[in-house]
Amino acid sequence: MPSSLFAATPAPTSLLPAAAAATRRLRCLSVRSCVALAAAEEAALLRRAAEVADRSAGLTSPHPNFGCVIARSDLAHGRGMVAVVGEGFLYAQGTKCAELQAAEEAGELARGGVAYLNLEPGDCYGDHTAVSSLVQAGISRVVVGLRQPLPHLRGKAIQALRSEGIQVDVVGEELQSKIFEEALKSCLSVNAPLLYRAAFRVPFSVLKYAMTLDGKIAASSGHASWVSSKLSRSRVFELRGRSDAIVVGGNTVRRDDPRLTARHGGHHVPARIVMSQTLDLPEEANLWNVFEAYTIVATQRGARKDMQKKLAAKGVEVVEFDILNPRDVMSYCYDRGYLSILWECGGSLAAPAISSGVIHKVFAFVAPKIIGGVNAPSPVGELGMVQMSQALDLIDVSYEQIGPDMLISGYLQPIPDLSPVIPSADETSSVDPTVSPYDTNIISFYKTWDPYGAFSNFSPHPIEMPDENGDYVTWRSVEHYYQAHKFMGVDSPVAAEFVEQIQLAKSPEEAARTGRKLQREHPELVRPDWESTKIDVMYRALKCKFATYPHLQTMLLSTAGSVLVEASPHDLFWGGGRDGEGLNYLGRLLMQLRSEILEEASKVSVDESA
Protein backbone atom coordinates (compact mmCIF):
# COMPACT_ATOMS: atom_id res chain seq x y z
CA MET A 1 0.00 0.00 0.00
CA PRO A 2 1.13 3.47 -0.70
CA SER A 3 2.52 5.05 2.39
CA SER A 4 0.49 8.16 1.65
CA LEU A 5 -2.66 6.33 2.80
CA PHE A 6 -1.27 6.19 6.36
CA ALA A 7 0.03 9.71 6.44
CA ALA A 8 -1.62 12.02 8.96
CA THR A 9 -3.76 14.73 7.53
CA PRO A 10 -2.20 18.06 8.37
CA ALA A 11 -4.21 19.92 10.99
CA PRO A 12 -5.22 23.49 10.43
CA THR A 13 -2.52 25.80 11.61
CA SER A 14 -4.94 27.59 13.95
CA LEU A 15 -5.70 24.34 15.86
CA LEU A 16 -2.11 23.32 16.65
CA PRO A 17 -1.57 25.58 19.71
CA ALA A 18 -4.92 24.49 21.21
CA ALA A 19 -4.14 20.79 20.76
CA ALA A 20 -0.70 21.23 22.29
CA ALA A 21 -2.17 23.10 25.26
CA ALA A 22 -4.76 20.35 25.80
CA THR A 23 -2.04 17.72 25.74
CA ARG A 24 -0.03 19.68 28.29
CA ARG A 25 -3.11 19.98 30.53
CA LEU A 26 -3.71 16.24 30.37
CA ARG A 27 -0.09 15.54 31.23
CA CYS A 28 -0.19 18.02 34.15
CA LEU A 29 -3.43 16.49 35.39
CA SER A 30 -1.85 13.05 35.27
CA VAL A 31 1.22 14.22 37.18
CA ARG A 32 -0.91 16.02 39.77
CA SER A 33 -3.04 12.91 40.23
CA CYS A 34 0.08 10.81 40.81
CA VAL A 35 1.45 13.36 43.22
CA ALA A 36 -1.88 13.55 45.07
CA LEU A 37 -2.05 9.78 45.20
CA ALA A 38 1.49 9.65 46.58
CA ALA A 39 0.67 12.34 49.15
CA ALA A 40 -2.44 10.45 50.26
CA GLU A 41 -0.39 7.27 50.67
CA GLU A 42 2.26 9.14 52.61
CA ALA A 43 -0.35 10.74 54.88
CA ALA A 44 -1.79 7.28 55.56
CA LEU A 45 1.66 5.92 56.43
CA LEU A 46 2.28 8.83 58.77
CA ARG A 47 -1.05 8.14 60.49
CA ARG A 48 0.07 4.54 60.75
CA ALA A 49 3.27 5.65 62.50
CA ALA A 50 1.13 7.50 65.06
CA GLU A 51 -1.01 4.40 65.58
CA VAL A 52 2.09 2.28 66.09
CA ALA A 53 3.47 4.83 68.56
CA ASP A 54 0.27 4.53 70.61
CA ARG A 55 0.94 0.83 71.28
CA SER A 56 3.11 1.66 74.27
CA ALA A 57 0.21 3.25 76.15
CA GLY A 58 -0.54 1.32 79.33
CA LEU A 59 2.65 -0.74 79.24
CA THR A 60 4.96 1.48 81.22
CA SER A 61 5.07 4.95 82.72
CA PRO A 62 3.95 7.36 79.98
CA HIS A 63 6.74 8.98 78.02
CA PRO A 64 7.08 10.55 74.58
CA ASN A 65 5.52 8.11 72.12
CA PHE A 66 7.68 7.22 69.13
CA GLY A 67 6.57 5.13 66.18
CA CYS A 68 8.40 4.27 62.97
CA VAL A 69 7.06 2.76 59.75
CA ILE A 70 9.41 1.86 56.89
CA ALA A 71 7.95 1.46 53.40
CA ARG A 72 9.42 0.60 50.04
CA SER A 73 8.79 3.33 47.53
CA ASP A 74 8.82 3.67 43.76
CA LEU A 75 7.64 7.25 43.39
CA ALA A 76 10.01 7.90 40.50
CA HIS A 77 7.79 5.82 38.23
CA GLY A 78 4.53 7.12 39.64
CA ARG A 79 3.50 3.81 41.18
CA GLY A 80 3.40 4.99 44.81
CA MET A 81 4.23 2.87 47.82
CA VAL A 82 4.86 -0.83 47.35
CA ALA A 83 4.62 -2.18 50.90
CA VAL A 84 5.29 -1.60 54.57
CA VAL A 85 8.39 -3.62 55.39
CA GLY A 86 9.07 -2.69 59.01
CA GLU A 87 7.40 -1.17 62.08
CA GLY A 88 8.48 -0.38 65.62
CA PHE A 89 7.54 1.64 68.70
CA LEU A 90 9.40 2.73 71.80
CA TYR A 91 8.26 0.50 74.65
CA ALA A 92 9.91 2.70 77.30
CA GLN A 93 12.91 4.91 77.89
CA GLY A 94 15.91 2.60 78.08
CA THR A 95 14.57 0.04 75.59
CA LYS A 96 15.25 -0.49 71.90
CA CYS A 97 14.19 2.60 69.92
CA ALA A 98 11.37 2.49 67.35
CA GLU A 99 13.69 3.19 64.41
CA LEU A 100 15.99 0.27 65.25
CA GLN A 101 13.07 -2.13 65.65
CA ALA A 102 11.60 -1.12 62.29
CA ALA A 103 15.00 -1.38 60.57
CA GLU A 104 15.62 -4.85 62.04
CA GLU A 105 12.20 -6.06 60.92
CA ALA A 106 12.72 -4.68 57.41
CA GLY A 107 16.24 -6.02 57.01
CA GLU A 108 17.63 -5.50 53.51
CA LEU A 109 14.21 -4.33 52.31
CA ALA A 110 14.79 -1.08 54.20
CA ARG A 111 17.57 -0.06 51.80
CA GLY A 112 16.30 2.77 49.64
CA GLY A 113 13.04 2.90 51.58
CA VAL A 114 11.23 5.76 53.30
CA ALA A 115 10.85 5.99 57.09
CA TYR A 116 7.75 7.67 58.56
CA LEU A 117 8.11 9.05 62.10
CA ASN A 118 5.26 10.56 64.09
CA LEU A 119 7.81 12.55 66.14
CA GLU A 120 11.39 13.64 65.60
CA PRO A 121 13.69 11.29 67.54
CA GLY A 122 14.79 12.60 70.93
CA ASP A 123 17.65 10.39 72.03
CA CYS A 124 19.25 10.63 75.43
CA TYR A 125 22.23 13.01 75.32
CA GLY A 126 25.00 11.67 73.09
CA ASP A 127 23.04 8.55 72.10
CA HIS A 128 22.21 8.64 68.40
CA THR A 129 20.79 5.13 68.02
CA ALA A 130 17.64 6.31 66.24
CA VAL A 131 19.57 8.30 63.65
CA SER A 132 22.31 5.70 63.16
CA SER A 133 19.71 2.93 62.77
CA LEU A 134 18.11 4.74 59.83
CA VAL A 135 21.48 5.58 58.30
CA GLN A 136 22.84 2.03 58.57
CA ALA A 137 19.59 0.60 57.22
CA GLY A 138 20.10 2.60 54.03
CA ILE A 139 16.97 4.74 54.36
CA SER A 140 16.86 7.30 51.56
CA ARG A 141 14.20 9.63 52.95
CA VAL A 142 12.51 10.37 56.27
CA VAL A 143 9.08 11.95 56.75
CA VAL A 144 8.56 13.55 60.18
CA GLY A 145 5.14 14.44 61.55
CA LEU A 146 6.26 16.72 64.39
CA ARG A 147 9.50 18.34 65.41
CA GLN A 148 10.62 17.65 68.97
CA PRO A 149 8.78 20.03 71.34
CA LEU A 150 11.58 19.84 73.94
CA PRO A 151 13.92 22.78 73.22
CA HIS A 152 17.19 20.98 73.95
CA LEU A 153 16.33 18.20 71.47
CA ARG A 154 14.46 20.16 68.83
CA GLY A 155 15.90 19.86 65.33
CA LYS A 156 18.98 17.86 66.34
CA ALA A 157 17.93 14.53 64.85
CA ILE A 158 16.63 16.19 61.68
CA GLN A 159 19.94 18.00 61.25
CA ALA A 160 21.90 14.81 61.93
CA LEU A 161 19.91 12.88 59.30
CA ARG A 162 20.39 15.61 56.70
CA SER A 163 24.11 15.74 57.42
CA GLU A 164 24.20 12.05 56.47
CA GLY A 165 22.69 12.86 53.08
CA ILE A 166 19.19 11.67 53.93
CA GLN A 167 16.29 13.76 52.66
CA VAL A 168 14.06 14.83 55.58
CA ASP A 169 10.59 16.27 54.97
CA VAL A 170 8.63 17.72 57.89
CA VAL A 171 4.85 18.14 57.79
CA GLY A 172 3.99 21.83 57.73
CA GLU A 173 7.40 22.72 56.33
CA GLU A 174 8.43 20.72 53.26
CA LEU A 175 5.02 19.00 53.21
CA GLN A 176 2.25 21.60 53.29
CA SER A 177 -0.57 19.84 51.48
CA LYS A 178 -3.99 19.76 53.18
CA ILE A 179 -3.88 16.01 52.70
CA PHE A 180 -1.51 15.84 55.66
CA GLU A 181 -3.85 17.67 58.07
CA GLU A 182 -5.42 14.48 59.48
CA ALA A 183 -2.00 12.84 59.73
CA LEU A 184 -0.68 15.83 61.63
CA LYS A 185 -3.69 15.68 63.93
CA SER A 186 -2.89 12.03 64.71
CA CYS A 187 0.71 12.90 65.49
CA LEU A 188 -0.39 15.73 67.78
CA SER A 189 -2.94 13.55 69.55
CA VAL A 190 -0.63 10.63 70.31
CA ASN A 191 1.85 12.99 71.99
CA ALA A 192 -0.65 15.44 73.48
CA PRO A 193 0.75 14.92 77.02
CA LEU A 194 4.26 15.92 75.95
CA LEU A 195 3.00 18.92 73.98
CA TYR A 196 0.83 20.27 76.80
CA ARG A 197 3.67 19.78 79.27
CA ALA A 198 6.09 21.68 77.05
CA ALA A 199 3.62 24.48 76.34
CA PHE A 200 2.01 25.04 79.74
CA ARG A 201 4.50 23.50 82.21
CA VAL A 202 1.83 21.28 83.73
CA PRO A 203 0.94 17.67 82.93
CA PHE A 204 -1.79 16.91 80.41
CA SER A 205 -4.97 16.51 82.51
CA VAL A 206 -8.10 14.58 81.58
CA LEU A 207 -11.34 14.90 83.56
CA LYS A 208 -13.36 11.70 83.43
CA TYR A 209 -16.82 11.11 84.83
CA ALA A 210 -19.86 8.90 84.32
CA MET A 211 -23.33 10.39 84.58
CA THR A 212 -26.94 9.49 84.01
CA LEU A 213 -29.00 10.91 81.19
CA ASP A 214 -30.23 13.62 83.57
CA GLY A 215 -26.71 14.65 84.50
CA LYS A 216 -26.21 12.93 87.88
CA ILE A 217 -23.05 11.11 88.96
CA ALA A 218 -24.72 9.53 92.00
CA ALA A 219 -28.06 9.27 93.76
CA SER A 220 -29.10 11.82 96.40
CA SER A 221 -27.74 9.41 99.02
CA GLY A 222 -24.33 9.50 97.37
CA HIS A 223 -24.54 5.91 96.09
CA ALA A 224 -22.82 5.67 92.70
CA SER A 225 -22.20 1.96 91.97
CA TRP A 226 -22.63 1.72 89.07
CA VAL A 227 -23.63 4.60 86.86
CA SER A 228 -22.02 3.23 83.70
CA SER A 229 -21.77 -0.25 82.21
CA LYS A 230 -19.01 -2.81 82.67
CA LEU A 231 -17.75 -2.08 79.17
CA SER A 232 -17.39 1.61 80.04
CA ARG A 233 -15.53 0.74 83.23
CA SER A 234 -13.11 -1.34 81.18
CA ARG A 235 -12.42 1.73 79.08
CA VAL A 236 -11.72 3.67 82.29
CA PHE A 237 -9.10 1.08 83.24
CA GLU A 238 -7.42 1.76 79.89
CA LEU A 239 -7.48 5.51 80.59
CA ARG A 240 -5.85 4.89 83.96
CA GLY A 241 -3.16 2.79 82.34
CA ARG A 242 -2.27 5.73 80.08
CA SER A 243 -1.84 8.08 83.04
CA ASP A 244 0.98 8.79 85.46
CA ALA A 245 -1.43 9.50 88.29
CA ILE A 246 -5.13 9.57 89.20
CA VAL A 247 -6.52 12.47 91.25
CA VAL A 248 -9.50 12.28 93.61
CA GLY A 249 -10.76 14.40 96.49
CA GLY A 250 -11.40 13.51 100.10
CA ASN A 251 -15.15 13.05 99.47
CA THR A 252 -14.44 10.25 96.99
CA VAL A 253 -12.26 8.45 99.53
CA ARG A 254 -14.86 8.78 102.30
CA ARG A 255 -17.88 7.79 100.21
CA ASP A 256 -16.56 5.26 97.70
CA ASP A 257 -13.33 3.87 99.23
CA PRO A 258 -11.92 3.30 95.71
CA ARG A 259 -8.82 1.31 94.76
CA LEU A 260 -8.07 3.32 91.59
CA THR A 261 -5.92 0.57 90.08
CA ALA A 262 -5.67 0.12 86.34
CA ARG A 263 -6.61 -3.56 86.10
CA HIS A 264 -6.08 -3.25 82.35
CA GLY A 265 -3.59 -6.06 81.84
CA GLY A 266 -0.63 -3.77 81.28
CA HIS A 267 2.44 -3.37 83.46
CA HIS A 268 2.20 0.30 84.35
CA VAL A 269 0.46 1.19 87.62
CA PRO A 270 -0.40 4.88 88.02
CA ALA A 271 0.08 6.65 91.32
CA ARG A 272 -3.02 7.73 93.29
CA ILE A 273 -3.27 11.35 94.49
CA VAL A 274 -5.78 12.41 97.14
CA MET A 275 -6.41 16.14 97.60
CA SER A 276 -7.68 16.97 101.08
CA GLN A 277 -7.36 20.32 102.84
CA THR A 278 -8.33 19.11 106.31
CA LEU A 279 -7.10 15.49 106.16
CA ASP A 280 -10.52 14.44 107.42
CA LEU A 281 -9.90 11.00 105.97
CA PRO A 282 -10.57 7.46 107.24
CA GLU A 283 -7.63 5.76 108.94
CA GLU A 284 -8.33 2.60 106.94
CA ALA A 285 -8.90 2.82 103.19
CA ASN A 286 -8.04 0.89 100.05
CA LEU A 287 -5.84 3.74 98.88
CA TRP A 288 -3.57 3.32 101.90
CA ASN A 289 -2.56 -0.11 100.59
CA VAL A 290 0.64 0.90 98.81
CA PHE A 291 1.41 -2.69 97.78
CA GLU A 292 -1.11 -2.22 94.96
CA ALA A 293 0.01 1.24 93.87
CA TYR A 294 1.82 4.29 95.20
CA THR A 295 -0.34 6.86 97.02
CA ILE A 296 0.26 10.57 97.58
CA VAL A 297 -1.90 12.72 99.84
CA ALA A 298 -1.77 16.45 99.09
CA THR A 299 -2.92 18.65 101.94
CA GLN A 300 -2.75 22.11 103.50
CA ARG A 301 0.37 22.87 105.52
CA GLY A 302 -0.13 22.00 109.19
CA ALA A 303 -3.27 19.89 108.68
CA ARG A 304 -3.72 17.06 111.24
CA LYS A 305 -0.14 16.13 112.01
CA ASP A 306 -1.33 12.97 113.76
CA MET A 307 -3.05 11.78 110.59
CA GLN A 308 0.03 12.66 108.54
CA LYS A 309 2.14 10.40 110.77
CA LYS A 310 -0.35 7.55 110.49
CA LEU A 311 -0.41 7.80 106.69
CA ALA A 312 3.39 7.99 106.49
CA ALA A 313 3.62 4.86 108.66
CA LYS A 314 1.56 3.02 106.05
CA GLY A 315 3.94 4.12 103.27
CA VAL A 316 1.71 6.92 101.98
CA GLU A 317 3.57 10.06 100.89
CA VAL A 318 2.12 13.24 102.42
CA VAL A 319 2.89 16.52 100.65
CA GLU A 320 1.98 19.84 102.29
CA PHE A 321 1.09 22.97 100.32
CA ASP A 322 0.82 26.49 101.68
CA ILE A 323 -2.55 26.75 99.96
CA LEU A 324 -3.94 23.54 98.48
CA ASN A 325 -5.25 24.16 94.96
CA PRO A 326 -5.26 22.25 91.65
CA ARG A 327 -2.70 24.53 89.97
CA ASP A 328 -0.02 24.03 92.64
CA VAL A 329 -0.65 20.28 92.80
CA MET A 330 -0.20 20.07 89.04
CA SER A 331 3.02 22.10 89.30
CA TYR A 332 4.22 19.55 91.82
CA CYS A 333 3.30 16.73 89.41
CA TYR A 334 5.19 18.57 86.66
CA ASP A 335 8.29 18.62 88.90
CA ARG A 336 7.91 14.86 89.39
CA GLY A 337 8.16 14.45 85.61
CA TYR A 338 4.54 13.39 85.12
CA LEU A 339 3.13 13.75 81.62
CA SER A 340 -0.50 12.74 82.03
CA ILE A 341 -3.02 12.99 84.89
CA LEU A 342 -6.51 11.49 85.08
CA TRP A 343 -9.00 13.32 87.32
CA GLU A 344 -11.73 11.02 88.70
CA CYS A 345 -12.95 13.46 91.31
CA GLY A 346 -16.40 14.74 92.20
CA GLY A 347 -17.94 18.01 91.14
CA SER A 348 -16.61 20.06 94.08
CA LEU A 349 -13.01 19.43 92.97
CA ALA A 350 -13.68 19.27 89.22
CA ALA A 351 -14.97 22.87 89.19
CA PRO A 352 -11.83 24.53 90.65
CA ALA A 353 -9.66 22.30 88.46
CA ILE A 354 -11.47 23.55 85.36
CA SER A 355 -11.44 27.15 86.62
CA SER A 356 -7.70 27.05 87.24
CA GLY A 357 -7.09 25.94 83.64
CA VAL A 358 -5.40 22.62 84.38
CA ILE A 359 -8.04 20.42 82.71
CA HIS A 360 -7.33 19.95 79.02
CA LYS A 361 -9.67 17.16 77.93
CA VAL A 362 -12.96 15.67 79.10
CA PHE A 363 -14.23 12.09 78.87
CA ALA A 364 -17.95 11.90 79.74
CA PHE A 365 -19.66 8.51 79.88
CA VAL A 366 -23.42 9.04 79.57
CA ALA A 367 -25.59 6.13 80.70
CA PRO A 368 -29.19 5.75 79.46
CA LYS A 369 -30.56 6.05 83.00
CA ILE A 370 -32.54 8.65 84.94
CA ILE A 371 -32.06 8.91 88.71
CA GLY A 372 -33.50 12.33 89.49
CA GLY A 373 -33.02 14.12 92.80
CA VAL A 374 -32.65 17.82 93.45
CA ASN A 375 -29.64 17.20 95.67
CA ALA A 376 -28.08 14.47 93.56
CA PRO A 377 -24.51 15.48 92.68
CA SER A 378 -23.53 16.57 89.19
CA PRO A 379 -20.09 16.06 87.57
CA VAL A 380 -19.01 19.72 87.79
CA GLY A 381 -19.74 22.07 90.66
CA GLU A 382 -20.17 25.83 90.65
CA LEU A 383 -18.17 27.68 87.99
CA GLY A 384 -19.71 31.09 88.57
CA MET A 385 -21.44 31.22 85.18
CA VAL A 386 -24.91 32.73 84.97
CA GLN A 387 -25.56 32.80 81.20
CA MET A 388 -25.44 29.99 78.66
CA SER A 389 -23.17 32.15 76.51
CA GLN A 390 -20.51 31.68 79.20
CA ALA A 391 -20.50 27.90 78.81
CA LEU A 392 -17.20 26.27 77.91
CA ASP A 393 -17.29 24.65 74.47
CA LEU A 394 -15.41 21.44 73.76
CA ILE A 395 -13.49 21.20 70.49
CA ASP A 396 -12.51 18.17 68.40
CA VAL A 397 -15.47 16.35 69.90
CA SER A 398 -15.79 12.58 69.41
CA TYR A 399 -18.77 10.29 70.00
CA GLU A 400 -18.51 6.57 70.62
CA GLN A 401 -21.08 4.05 71.77
CA ILE A 402 -19.75 1.64 74.39
CA GLY A 403 -22.36 -1.00 75.16
CA PRO A 404 -25.47 0.91 76.28
CA ASP A 405 -23.48 4.06 77.09
CA MET A 406 -22.34 6.97 74.98
CA LEU A 407 -18.79 8.27 75.41
CA ILE A 408 -18.42 11.95 74.54
CA SER A 409 -14.88 13.32 74.56
CA GLY A 410 -13.30 16.59 73.54
CA TYR A 411 -10.68 19.17 74.37
CA LEU A 412 -11.22 22.26 76.52
CA GLN A 413 -8.04 23.71 75.07
CA PRO A 414 -6.60 22.92 71.62
CA ILE A 415 -3.57 20.66 71.39
CA PRO A 416 -0.62 23.06 71.13
CA ASP A 417 1.46 22.79 67.98
CA LEU A 418 4.77 24.12 69.21
CA SER A 419 6.54 24.13 65.86
CA PRO A 420 6.61 27.90 65.34
CA VAL A 421 7.24 29.02 68.94
CA ILE A 422 9.87 26.84 70.59
CA PRO A 423 13.40 27.86 69.54
CA SER A 424 15.94 25.31 68.45
CA ALA A 425 18.77 24.28 70.72
CA ASP A 426 21.14 26.39 68.59
CA GLU A 427 19.05 29.47 69.36
CA THR A 428 19.01 28.86 73.10
CA SER A 429 22.23 29.38 74.99
CA SER A 430 22.95 26.71 77.57
CA VAL A 431 25.07 29.14 79.54
CA ASP A 432 23.72 32.27 81.17
CA PRO A 433 26.35 35.00 80.60
CA THR A 434 24.92 37.02 83.49
CA VAL A 435 25.88 34.41 86.06
CA SER A 436 28.89 35.47 88.09
CA PRO A 437 31.79 32.99 88.13
CA TYR A 438 31.65 33.26 91.90
CA ASP A 439 28.05 32.06 92.04
CA THR A 440 27.25 28.38 92.41
CA ASN A 441 25.77 26.95 89.22
CA ILE A 442 23.27 24.16 89.86
CA ILE A 443 22.55 21.59 87.15
CA SER A 444 19.43 19.52 87.77
CA PHE A 445 18.52 16.24 86.12
CA TYR A 446 15.66 13.79 86.54
CA LYS A 447 13.83 12.37 83.52
CA THR A 448 15.91 10.79 80.76
CA TRP A 449 14.52 13.24 78.21
CA ASP A 450 15.75 16.23 80.22
CA PRO A 451 18.90 18.09 79.01
CA TYR A 452 21.11 16.13 81.42
CA GLY A 453 18.87 13.09 81.49
CA ALA A 454 21.79 10.75 80.75
CA PHE A 455 22.84 11.18 84.40
CA SER A 456 19.66 9.36 85.43
CA ASN A 457 19.83 5.70 86.46
CA PHE A 458 17.01 5.15 83.97
CA SER A 459 19.04 6.25 80.96
CA PRO A 460 19.33 3.64 78.16
CA HIS A 461 22.95 2.63 78.80
CA PRO A 462 23.56 -1.07 79.56
CA ILE A 463 26.52 -1.98 81.78
CA GLU A 464 28.55 -5.16 82.28
CA MET A 465 29.47 -6.00 85.86
CA PRO A 466 31.07 -9.10 87.41
CA ASP A 467 28.85 -11.36 89.50
CA GLU A 468 29.81 -13.28 92.65
CA ASN A 469 31.74 -15.80 90.54
CA GLY A 470 33.64 -13.18 88.58
CA ASP A 471 31.62 -13.74 85.42
CA TYR A 472 30.46 -10.59 83.64
CA VAL A 473 26.72 -10.04 83.48
CA THR A 474 24.95 -7.46 81.32
CA TRP A 475 22.42 -5.20 83.00
CA ARG A 476 20.07 -3.11 80.89
CA SER A 477 20.56 -0.02 83.04
CA VAL A 478 22.08 1.15 86.31
CA GLU A 479 18.60 0.92 87.83
CA HIS A 480 18.37 -2.78 86.95
CA TYR A 481 21.73 -3.42 88.62
CA TYR A 482 20.88 -1.39 91.72
CA GLN A 483 17.43 -2.88 92.34
CA ALA A 484 18.64 -6.47 91.85
CA HIS A 485 21.43 -6.04 94.38
CA LYS A 486 18.89 -5.58 97.15
CA PHE A 487 18.53 -9.37 97.06
CA MET A 488 22.04 -10.39 96.01
CA GLY A 489 23.90 -12.81 98.26
CA VAL A 490 20.81 -13.81 100.23
CA ASP A 491 20.72 -17.57 100.84
CA SER A 492 17.27 -18.16 99.41
CA PRO A 493 16.06 -19.49 96.05
CA VAL A 494 13.22 -16.95 96.21
CA ALA A 495 15.74 -14.09 96.49
CA ALA A 496 17.57 -15.52 93.47
CA GLU A 497 14.27 -15.53 91.56
CA PHE A 498 13.79 -11.86 92.50
CA VAL A 499 17.21 -11.01 91.09
CA GLU A 500 16.41 -12.75 87.82
CA GLN A 501 12.97 -11.12 87.64
CA ILE A 502 14.50 -7.66 87.99
CA GLN A 503 17.27 -8.43 85.51
CA LEU A 504 14.70 -9.45 82.88
CA ALA A 505 12.54 -6.35 83.38
CA LYS A 506 11.97 -4.74 79.97
CA SER A 507 12.61 -1.18 81.13
CA PRO A 508 14.28 0.68 84.00
CA GLU A 509 10.83 1.81 85.18
CA GLU A 510 9.72 -1.79 85.49
CA ALA A 511 12.97 -2.78 87.24
CA ALA A 512 12.46 0.02 89.78
CA ARG A 513 8.80 -0.81 90.30
CA THR A 514 9.53 -4.51 90.73
CA GLY A 515 12.48 -3.98 93.09
CA ARG A 516 10.61 -1.54 95.32
CA LYS A 517 7.51 -3.70 95.46
CA LEU A 518 9.46 -6.86 96.36
CA GLN A 519 11.38 -4.91 99.01
CA ARG A 520 8.10 -3.76 100.60
CA GLU A 521 6.44 -7.16 100.43
CA HIS A 522 9.47 -9.28 101.42
CA PRO A 523 11.73 -7.23 103.70
CA GLU A 524 13.09 -10.47 105.15
CA LEU A 525 14.71 -11.29 101.79
CA VAL A 526 16.55 -7.97 101.47
CA ARG A 527 20.26 -8.39 102.19
CA PRO A 528 20.91 -7.40 105.83
CA ASP A 529 23.69 -4.97 104.96
CA TRP A 530 21.69 -3.17 102.28
CA GLU A 531 21.41 0.21 104.02
CA SER A 532 25.14 0.36 104.61
CA THR A 533 26.20 -0.95 101.22
CA LYS A 534 23.68 0.57 98.77
CA ILE A 535 25.83 3.66 98.18
CA ASP A 536 28.81 1.49 97.20
CA VAL A 537 26.59 -0.58 94.90
CA MET A 538 25.37 2.57 93.18
CA TYR A 539 28.85 4.00 92.84
CA ARG A 540 30.25 0.84 91.23
CA ALA A 541 27.45 0.92 88.68
CA LEU A 542 28.00 4.62 87.94
CA LYS A 543 31.74 4.15 87.45
CA CYS A 544 31.09 1.34 84.99
CA LYS A 545 28.48 3.37 83.10
CA PHE A 546 30.67 6.44 82.61
CA ALA A 547 33.74 4.33 81.81
CA THR A 548 31.80 2.38 79.18
CA TYR A 549 30.40 5.40 77.34
CA PRO A 550 33.00 8.12 76.56
CA HIS A 551 30.35 10.60 75.43
CA LEU A 552 28.73 10.38 78.87
CA GLN A 553 32.07 11.00 80.53
CA THR A 554 32.55 14.05 78.32
CA MET A 555 29.13 15.27 79.34
CA LEU A 556 29.93 14.77 83.03
CA LEU A 557 33.24 16.63 82.75
CA SER A 558 31.47 19.50 80.99
CA THR A 559 29.67 20.21 84.27
CA ALA A 560 32.91 20.87 86.19
CA GLY A 561 32.37 23.63 88.75
CA SER A 562 28.61 23.01 88.92
CA VAL A 563 26.58 21.31 91.63
CA LEU A 564 24.69 18.30 90.30
CA VAL A 565 21.25 17.67 91.79
CA GLU A 566 18.92 14.80 91.08
CA ALA A 567 15.68 16.78 91.00
CA SER A 568 13.40 14.12 92.44
CA PRO A 569 10.81 15.87 94.62
CA HIS A 570 9.98 12.69 96.55
CA ASP A 571 13.22 10.69 96.92
CA LEU A 572 14.90 12.37 99.86
CA PHE A 573 17.90 10.03 99.83
CA TRP A 574 19.09 9.89 96.22
CA GLY A 575 17.32 13.11 95.20
CA GLY A 576 17.26 16.73 96.28
CA GLY A 577 13.64 16.75 97.40
CA ARG A 578 10.92 19.27 96.66
CA ASP A 579 12.47 22.17 98.59
CA GLY A 580 16.10 21.09 98.65
CA GLU A 581 15.62 19.05 101.81
CA GLY A 582 16.85 15.81 100.20
CA LEU A 583 20.31 14.31 100.72
CA ASN A 584 20.98 14.20 96.94
CA TYR A 585 23.30 11.20 97.16
CA LEU A 586 23.09 10.48 93.43
CA GLY A 587 24.25 14.01 92.65
CA ARG A 588 27.02 13.67 95.24
CA LEU A 589 28.26 10.41 93.75
CA LEU A 590 28.35 11.90 90.27
CA MET A 591 30.34 14.87 91.53
CA GLN A 592 32.71 12.50 93.31
CA LEU A 593 33.15 10.49 90.13
CA ARG A 594 33.72 13.69 88.17
CA SER A 595 36.49 14.72 90.58
CA GLU A 596 38.16 11.32 90.28
CA ILE A 597 38.10 11.45 86.48
CA LEU A 598 39.52 14.98 86.45
CA GLU A 599 42.23 14.00 88.93
CA GLU A 600 43.20 10.96 86.88
CA ALA A 601 43.32 13.06 83.71
CA SER A 602 45.54 15.57 85.49
CA LYS A 603 47.98 12.82 86.53
CA VAL A 604 48.15 11.50 82.98
CA SER A 605 48.85 15.00 81.70
CA VAL A 606 51.69 15.47 84.20
CA ASP A 607 53.22 12.09 83.34
CA GLU A 608 53.12 12.84 79.63
CA SER A 609 54.76 16.23 80.08
CA ALA A 610 57.50 14.79 82.35
UniProtKB/TrEMBL annotation:
GO-annotated molecular function: 5-amino-6-(5-phosphoribosylamino)uracil reductase activity; diaminohydroxyphosphoribosylaminopyrimidine deaminase activity; hydrolase activity, hydrolyzing N-glycosyl compounds; NADP binding
Domain CMP/dCMP-type deaminase residues, every copy: 40-169
CDD domains according to UniProt: NADAR
Keyword NADP listed: yes
Keywords of this entry: Glycosidase, Hydrolase, Multifunctional enzyme, NADP, Oxidoreductase
Catalyses which reaction(s): 5-amino-6-(5-phospho-D-ribosylamino)uracil + H2O = 5,6-diaminouracil + D-ribose 5-phosphate; 2,5-diamino-6-hydroxy-4-(5-phosphoribosylamino)-pyrimidine + H2O = 2,5,6-triamino-4-hydroxypyrimidine + D-ribose 5-phosphate
Pathway connected to this protein: Cofactor biosynthesis; riboflavin biosynthesis; 5-amino-6-(D-ribitylamino)uracil from GTP: step 3/4
Example of a GO biological process term: carbohydrate derivative metabolic process
Keyword Oxidoreductase applies: yes
Record-given protein name: 5-amino-6-(5-phosphoribosylamino)uracil reductase
Phylogenetic lineage: Eukaryota, Viridiplantae, Streptophyta, Embryophyta, Tracheophyta
Name of the gene this protein is made from: LOC109725778
